[in-house]
Amino acid sequence: MTIQDFILEAGKEIRSYLEGCGESDVQVSETDIVKANDTVLHGLILRREGSAAGANIYLDDLFERHESGERMTDLMWELKSRCRAVLESPLPPFELLNDLRLESIRSRLTLRLLDVRRNMSYMAHRPYIDAGNGLAMAVDINCHESIKSEWKVAVTDGVLESIGCSREELLTAAMENTIILEPPLLMDLPSYLATGSHDNYLEGLPREAGSGPFILTNTSQVRGAAVLFYPGIMERISDVFHGGYYVLPISIHEMLIIPEETHPDVAQLAEMLEQGNRVIVDEDDVLSDKVFRYCPSSQKLCIAKAEAA
Predict the structure, then answer these.
(1) Is the pLDDT of residue 308 over 60?
(2) C-alpha dist (Å) from residue 107 to 90, 94, 158, 268
(3) What is the pLDDT of residues 236-259, one digit of tens each?
(4) Is the pLDDT of residue 149 over 80?
(5) Residue 246: which residues within 8 A CB-CB, separation 6 or more?
(6) Residues 133, 290 contacting (CB under 8 angstroms)
(7) pLDDT value, residue 309
(8) pTM score, two decimals?
(9) I want to staple 306 with a disulfide (CB 3.0 to 4.6 A). Which of 69, 165, 267, 296 is the partner?
(10) Residue 17: which of 9, 2, 33 has the closest Cα?
């Protein structure tokens, strides 16, 4: 049985289940969804008639368990439980997105940082800011007041047409609002791990920084890697360290900042980053395997190169 066969069987089972429960107004359709890092998930969309909003039920894990020998009847029973949980869960206020004019959604726009090579399919037909070095920032519309909510609408070229503004206007508005919603946060990692201190080296009077390393993120610590590309942030970090620094994109949520004066081994940093991305970081949260270096004299971020032996 292929994943497509499994999805078809699951769709038949859920349609029969919904009909027996009196949920005849719920429409079921099969779907493949491209997530960040071009991860393709397979599943079903449940949508009530007359509603533009739908809820996804992913089936990849159930299919893998079927391939490992679990009984189809047991898996379909679990699928029905997921279906019921989805139907009973409140959806976010999607009606807020009925008006997609820029002025109506401006306060809900945010940016996320992505690796271009890892997200070729995901970023297709999406307006984005080229951040250089193979990174880009794409725009989302938050469907919920909480910035931490996963309910977001990815702004595609089609959505941009509904918004009715230029790409430049959209991207500028998204950057301005992201800075307001998610101010930058630079923390000393040893202090944070030892005491939970969120002391922000980008606020207040200039002060002497330790040897670090440091964590750069935003105040919610969700999708905070984009902070590095806020206007003027690279220069402000350089002022804190009185010099250059290395940047490790350890996830989409944060960057690891290491002052250049500590003379780190770039090859070791690259190995540590790659190992972390393979073993520790969730696949959806992986940002990049590249180590970057900020040079204060040129005021540019570039890919760091290991010194020849």
Answers:
(1) no
(2) 23, 15, 20, 42
(3) 999 999 999 999 999 999 999 999
(4) no
(5) 257, 258, 260, 264, 266, 269, 291, 292, 293, 294, 304
(6) yes
(7) 45
(8) 0.76
(9) 267
(10) 9
Structure tokens at 169: 């206007």
Q: Which amino acid belongs to residue 130? A: D
